[in-house]
Design a protein that fits this description.
The chain is mainly alpha-helical. It contains six helices and three strands, in the order ααβααββαα. The chain has a three-stranded antiparallel sheet with strand order 1-3-2.
């Protein structure tokens, strides 16, 4: 993969696959009747993966502005799926935790994600899936470094 067209093709495939994955996720969550928007479902999954984190950390992980995530967390809190607790390290911020009630809904959301990933990786062997995961992890880390360097140069 040395030619510009091959690299452009890879960039196009990554970008379009991400768009298709996001669209399919949004459709599945909307049609599943879970009572959550796709954004709320993403926020709930993220809280589950980094339970006890600050809102800003959750927003960074999802790739959204903190105020957008705040709206999702407000709704999740109204549904008693998450709770905000004082941050022991910084009294100006709150940490977000799952509640016991969230477990059944998380199972349902994860089932939708699992089904979607099974569809997306149909025809892959377990070895293919493991390698694909490893390669995407490298891509993500490489791009995070690039974005992190840019943010350090241009703080807003």
């Amino acid at each position: 993969m040395n030619t510009p067209s091959e690299k452009e093709s890879l960039a196009f495939l990554l970008n379009s696959s991400t768009r298709f994955l996001n669209s399919a996720f949004e459709r599945r969550i909307s049609e599943a009747g879970l009572g959550l928007t796709p954004g709320e479902a993403r926020a709930l999954l993220t809280v589950a993966s980094i339970n006890g984190s600050k809102q800003a950390d959750i927003a960074a992980r999802i790739g959204l502005e903190p105020m957008t995530v705040c709206t999702y967390l407000d709704k999740l809190e109204q549904l008693d799926l998450v709770e905000r607790r004082p941050n022991p390290d910084d009294r100006r911020s709150k940490c977000i935790f799952l509640t016991e009630i969230s477990s059944d809904l998380l199972i349902a959301v994860r089932a939708e994600v699992d089904s979607l990933i099974n569809q997306a990786t149909d025809g892959f062997s377990q070895s293919d899936i493991a390698k694909f995961h490893d390669l995407l992890t490298i891509v993500q880390k490489n791009l995070q470094l690039s974005v992190g360097d840019k943010n350090k140069q241009n703080p807003e």
